[in-house]
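Hello, quick one for you while I still have it in my head. A protein chain has come my way and I'm curious about its shape. Can you walk me through what the tokens say about the fold? No rush at all, and the record is pasted right below.
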Amino acid sequence: EFLSDPRVIELNKAIWYPILYGLVLTSRPKKSGANYARIWNREKNESPLRTYTRAQGEKLAAALRDLPNVTVDWAMRYGNPSTASVAERLVAQGCDRILSLPLYPQYSATTTATANDQLFRALMKMRRAPAIRSVPPYYDEPVYIEALAASIEQHLATLNFEPEVVITSYHGIPKPYSDKGDPYQTHCLATTRLLRARLGWDEEKL
């Protein structure tokens, strides 16, 4: 589903599908499966992405538990629980307003937009759809930058040496996507710049 998402792969299907089904899907699962096996949550028999997403949802629900008429739930763009199933469950519980929070600090059509697309597709099948709002990207939010800085500082405190360089790493997108206006690279650079300022480091350090 991920590699057939037109938001992720913008090639014409007539060109991409023979590559996807003839080459990629005949070799990629074995390689990615071996990598996943190294980080798989064997206790819960699930991917770490699902584990951490659930944990975030549970912590947010606990933080908002005193607010009346607020329900917190979580879904996976690719996988289960699906976006559609969770949207249907919320509506069945009486929710008439949904605030969607795509867990991507930096916006990209390949991530935030496709997550929103999936929610909107679910609503298209509902006779009475709830009102929807989507949280904007938060790549430059002070709380987010502080959380990143705190995580780095906590990890550095466990080391018995001082790293000469710390590297920020982000997922990549094809350059043509950026050329067409996808702001992902700009958002990533802004996050790094703000994080560098918060830590008091120069460009040679971070």
